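Weekly modeling sync, notes
Attendees: S.R. (lead), two postdocs, one rotation student

Agenda item 3: backlog of single-chain predictions. S.R. asked that every request posted to the team notebook include the full sequence so nobody has to chase files. The rotation student volunteered to paste the first one in as an example of the format we agreed on. Action items at the bottom.

Example entry:
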Amino acid sequence: MEERPDRSERREAEVREHLANERTLLSWIRTGVGLISIGLVVERAGALAGVQDASIGASGIFGVALALLGCLTLVIGTAQFLRNRRRIIEGDFTPAVAAYLVVVAGSMALAAAFVVYVALQLLP
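Predicted structure, as returned to the notebook:
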């Protein structure tokens, strides 16, 4: 016969889950702020180099796209934190991968666009 955990053990487990959820939120925040920062650097680097492909410039487009992806990461991370918090309290936690896939897909799309852009610049 299996022993049921007592109330204090369940409470300790719940506290550990909440702390892990908070650490995950901090990782989302670090990722979002990093993407925003890189976006600002990319945009400013193009402006400093005097690159003018179009009225806004390719570096401006990539920079803004990275900053928007960073903002989206912050929103998704916060929403996931709140959802996980509610599910931990209810005792009904099921992990979701959709949030991760959105950020990964956005990052890959930006990386692919950048590779195509650089390849077109290198062609005669």
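Discussion: group reviewed the output briefly. Helices lie at 7-49, 58-90, 98-122.
Action items: rotation student to repeat for the remaining queue; S.R. to check formatting next week.
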